[in-house]
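Hi X.,

You mentioned you wanted examples for the new student's onboarding notes, showing what a folding record looks like when two proteins sit in one file. Here is a clean example. The first protein comes first, with its sequence line followed by its structure tokens.
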Amino acid sequence: MQQRDPVAPGTAPKAADAVSLRLLFPRKGTFVHEILKNMWYNTRDRKSDHHGGKRMYRMGTNQKKTPEGEPIPAGMRAESSLPPVLLPGIHSPADLKALPEDKMPELCREIRGELLRTVTRTGGHLASNLGVVELSVAMHRVFDCPRDHFIFDVGHQSYVHKMLTGRYERMQTLRQGGGISGFTKRTESEYDCFGAGHSSTSLSAALGFAQADRMMGSDAWTVAVVGDGAFTGGMIHEALNNVSPGLRLVIIINENEMSISKNIGRFAMHMARLRQKEGYFRTKRRTTHFIKKIPLIGDGLFRAIRRVKKSFKNAMYGSNYFEDMGLYYLGPADGNDYRAVVNLLQAARDTGDSVVIHLKTRKGKGYPPAERDPGAFHGMPPAPAGAPNPGAAVPDNFSRHLGQILIQESVRDDRICAITAAMSEGTGLEAFRAARPDRFFDVGIAEEHALTFAAGLAADGFHPVAAIYSTFLQRGYDQIVHDIALQRLPVVLCIDRAGLSQGDGATHHGIFDVSFLSAIPNMTLYAPATFAGLEVAFRTAIASGVPSAIRYPNRPEDARVRSVFYPDGTPQTVGVRADYVPGERPDAVILCHGAMATESLTAKDLLAAEGVRVGILLCEYLKPYDRLAGEVAACLPPDVPILFAEEEIRAGGFGMMLADALCRRGELKDRRFDILAVDDSFVLQFVPEPVRRTAGVDAVGIAARVRKLLH
């Protein structure tokens, strides 16, 4: 089939095309008339817009600019210190809807002030929530939550939603023990219809809600808020591929200046404004119905007009991914313009069908430091309000040290390369990115792809290092089994945030990796407790030529652990370290690994005050367990009770696997032993040390379990 030549920007359409277009919208002032009138204003601006993406058009705004070009935060500095007036009176979305429309700008300013006060005190995700204030308010003004379902991808940008749904007075407990979660959580509120914490899950869940409502005959809407970064995750596209016509589903793309499309310029913005006009979709549906009813030629005429319209749009601003999938598309528009967002949400509701709304927001909106450096204010630790740069004062930790090790080792071995799944800062790889950009790969939120990509690199002779949080590694389990371990490919998995999370709660604890990796053949698992141990484990893993995993916590090095277990300086090999000399017979021995070395040393001090002598064996690797059992057995005094201490899940974990290996060697035949681990449950949210105390795996819990063994 011959393809129609597109209409060139800056020229009028061919006469036949214009006639066909006028058949659909014949009256002056209608959609196509406005497009034709404005279409030749775009050529120069479109070229500049697409060159580096520097230009950003905002709808309905008339903001003043600072000399540096940043929007002045209207009253932010002055009003953030004032107590809110409107916000305390909002206990449900009904209270929000009862407020006059002209109070919304003031309410948005109050919300930003509260976010700044709360998050700088409790820690959490500041920049992303500052960017979605207007969007969150507009959603609750237009839709009827909880009858309508709101689903936030990841859930970290739901703080404003929480404030507007009866949780404002509890915001000071955000991410605290017994307080509200930093993510959406079904058990916390009826307004949180679906829990989150990981990326790219929202559309699949939203599609489930929308289909369920349709099957039940409900006219409820489902609204999914998805950051543009989530579109690097495959689940989003899998869900889009399954969206069927007639679903009452609104997909809001929150693009915070990380462009996923090229639809920027006067033409695209003008189209968005036209589509916001009241009655646009109603008129479109009626016109479509009228044309299709024309005898003999109706269906053919409609298809011809639709082809012309699509060719016209493609010529002006390119093919649209969402419309090509049969979805309505509205945008892009300024997501920080409250009125524009309300208009788009109302237009989406008017369609009665699945709609994509594309909003451009500014991360950190209203707080200049966060606007300048949103990355530093993405996930903030607790800090006093007004701290000069809360994102910068981070002590050296295992993640940063890994980055330095990679730089150092890549000088010796040019085959070393690093892979991350959209977490280069969190995994400490920014320094390596700067030093070796040709050996650094950020694949986006795509752990499955990252791991098989690493397998491909390894199969062709490179030494890939995939640095991924423990909680996100579980998203790529099949790739570890099928693509890496089964083929015995030398991929090194650097597992960040191993162990219990200090604030993000159940969705982010790294407590399952030991269990699921222990079940995989051909896999070696290291668990260093110091920076020196991390360096030795890394070199050993690279040299081994087999699949390896190195797990480490998100914390600084403990100087006590270094001095107790490495009195002679930097170790040269990975093994089992004892804090007692051969021949010495303590009352009990604690077997631990990683961050639990710190808790074990503290427990030893507690028990020493009671006259109980405890020895500690630090295991720097876990798997293969049979080999580890041999080294442990060589260090164990006869008949002394032992406690396996870990902060991971008990089932299939370090304690169970090592106890089994020791049992098969006959080492546990006449010996009392116990396993201290996270029991069969999801550990809830507590910060920072109480999370271990609540799970019973802190120093106090270890000491209590040793006492029980001895009596």
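Then the second protein repeats the pattern, sequence line and then tokens:
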Amino acid sequence: MPHTVNSSLLKKILVLGASLFAFGFGVTGCNKTASQSPRVVRHHPAKPLYKNGEPLSPNAALSTANGHNNGSAKVNTGDVQNQQAATGGAVTTSGNADNAAIAKLQSASGKDGPIKTIGLTGIGINDAVGVALARHPDIGRANAVVAQGKAQIAIEKSAWYPTLQYSVNPGYNRYYSSSNNKNDPGNVRGTVGASQLIYDFGRTSSRIGAAQATNEKQVHQLAGTMEDVAQNMANTFIELSAAQDLISAAERETGLLRDTHDKISQRVKAGLSDASDLNQAEVAMERAKSDLLQATTRFDVAAGKFAQISGFRPTKVATLAETTRFMDSLSKGKDDIDKTPAVLAAEAEVRASQQRVRLAKADRFPSVSLGVSQSGATGQRNATNDSTFVGLQLSGQFSTGKREKYQIEAAEAELRAARQARDNEQLVSRTTKGSAETEERGASARMDNAKQLMNLSLSSRDLYWQQYTLNKRPLTDVINAERDTFSAESDQITAISDRLYAKVKAYYAVGQLVTRLRERS
């Protein structure tokens, strides 16, 4: 008899479980099949390559969002020295209606592109920025945050699907037992059930909307992070290129002063110049060597920073003239302040705050669900232990301390703060763009002035040397003219680099730096 009763209970639980599964499948089947979710770009950090125990330059996996390429860059030092292979590509994407905005921001097209070889010697600013984007860990962190936000959307949407509950509780049964002995410890009570949310006054939809807006914000922050990395690397590259040109100028100054020293030495031996002139020339040479050491130190500092970002230390990069031609060839693009990553992220935060206000207001009302459950216990059937329930469920809570009121006030204050933050980002972008344009105009004017000054100094130097040989001018004037030539060239290099800084800053202010560099790549 106990075996028959236990079998009967097991059959009832199995039949009920099958019916609940069919119920859940039917509810789920009523929904339209969603298309594949939009892609979430992921960054794979690079790892060093090793061959014969010697460390090679790191691999770099390039993952970008907002329409940028997704690929990988590999740096090797093997049979072909100073060569870097970078594999570029793009990842195809698809999206659904609920996340159209996110899909638009993350969209990219095309398959893996051709392999691109980058020469480490004379590397350009666009390749340097590409390597930085491929390696920087902050981009990987931002990609992980985007993936987390995408998962949060799915979590919030799951509230609209049926929830299954089950429990099996062994213990005493004081109502009956198979052996007609009270408090038989062998009894088992089981329950299976399901519930389907019907209406909650906008609570779930607000949570979904807030999660979607937050994910949009994270995508824009990813684009902003890429802009930050690109600007940092571009500025480092410009500093490195300027130091390289300054070294060349200092070497020219040292060489010219050495020639002057040799000429004066010959004149002293011939009795045409005084020995004090030779000492004066040696002092000028030492000063030129100091300028060279200072320029070399500046290059080493910039190269060290470059190596920290890119993973390799270049011995030579593109000159300022080459970098200027490249930057001048970039398309101007759109200068819409309202479309920068920072402003778009602030706009998304405003939408998320609006949804949180709706959520706070919806928390004042209950939620309505449809529930079904079946309970059973071992032994003979008893109304207390074996029961079936199908009906509506109403749940909610109300705080006597006016918690709901204060939650609404807090959410509304958060919304006001988000709107102020959006306006502040617009102001910052507009101010940055205006200052960059002013700095570029000023640097261009300084470039022209330095060029004229350098030409005049060169003419004066040649004239002063001729007059010195005729004993019509002291050697000090010749050395000062040489010094003025180097100073004018240094000023011109500084003005060129400042103009490039300003151009990078202008593209960064409108969130177009990565886009413009990518077009040229």
